[in-house]
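Q: What changes when zinc ion is included in the input?
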Amino acid sequence: MALIGGLALGCQILALPAQAGVVVTGAAITGDKTRTEFSMTLSQGVTVEVFTLANPYRVILDMPDVTFELPKDAGQSGQGLISAYRYGLFAARKSRVVIDTVSPVSIEKAEMTAAPGGAVKLLLSLKSSDAASFGAGTGASRTASRPVQADLGRGADSPRPSRRTGRPVVVIDPGHGGVDPGALGASNVYEKDVVLAAALELFAELEKLDRFDVVLTRSTDVFVSLDDRLEFSRSRSADLFVSLHADAIADKRFTSQVRGATVYTLSDRASDEAARRMAEKENSADAIAGLPVLKEEEEGGVRDILIDLVKRETANFSMDASNSLVGRLKQATQLSAKPQRAAAFKVLRQTGTPSVLVELGYLSNKDDEKRLSSESWRRKVAESLAAAISAYFDRRTALAP
Ligand code: ZN
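A: The predicted holo structure follows.
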């Protein structure tokens, strides 16, 4: 077991009782590869739970809902044993900080002390460790057994349980959220924010058509795990699932060329290397938010021919949706060089629900970032997506026996 201040891992560091309106006003990293200190200033004390996770190596700080007032690029780069950190809402009334470390670490010290002006300073001292001792101390099994209650269906737009009015159910899935910010644009625009804004526009456009039951997997800045997104779609008996993203490419040499919208469908064999990497990145969303990474379930284990048929039908419908979306999107905005791609996105792994993932553009591209930040552009794109979804269902109805 790794130790925190002499106590067993996963123990609670108790401070003053949590109160509403706690603000994190600063965060800093000091030290080197032997010992690194992470500190955070809070307006008042809260209960913080600290634990480590392997694969990749991370230190997690869980606390009640706090407001982070940190610079937009806080945590993008690290120092010493820390390579980066992220923060945000992890579930309803629960905030989380995920610290990525460059190697296994042990928590040497974790304490809260009084700071000037009634504030509180949380100090975490990390020491370089080895894989063997870290492995024994991983909090993975402990958190894995605890179901993550993501804040699904918050807000009036996400009724629960699902209404069965006979109208097609469209699930809009804004990617990322909360502690998982997604990509960060050159002007510090977060993917989680622009895709939520676009999703709310699409929600409004689809509602205007008055022919669908439209629900959102999230309507606030909260983390939702990939499993919870899938479960949400299943529980609503979704007829179409549309995930919205706006990622970045890592290779700086291509940021000016790689731009425009792309529609992805599910395939175990990726259409190309870039699509494969994009799916790999999206599938790591849970790890980014500090969830333990479990072994991918063996999809190949399912041998039921009926399921295979359902899957094939679903894949065909997903392709129809992709065709419809790309056809309309090109009238509203620029498409990427290869606008229809396929890869093994976990969030698209839905047996009976046609599912697509729309990359609205690349936040790594300055022009795309500008467009994604523009309300009028988002509305135009939302209109075209809504028209495409409507056309897709027209075609499905026409084809139905
Ligand atoms: Zn994304």
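Observations recorded in class: The longest strand covers residues 82-91.
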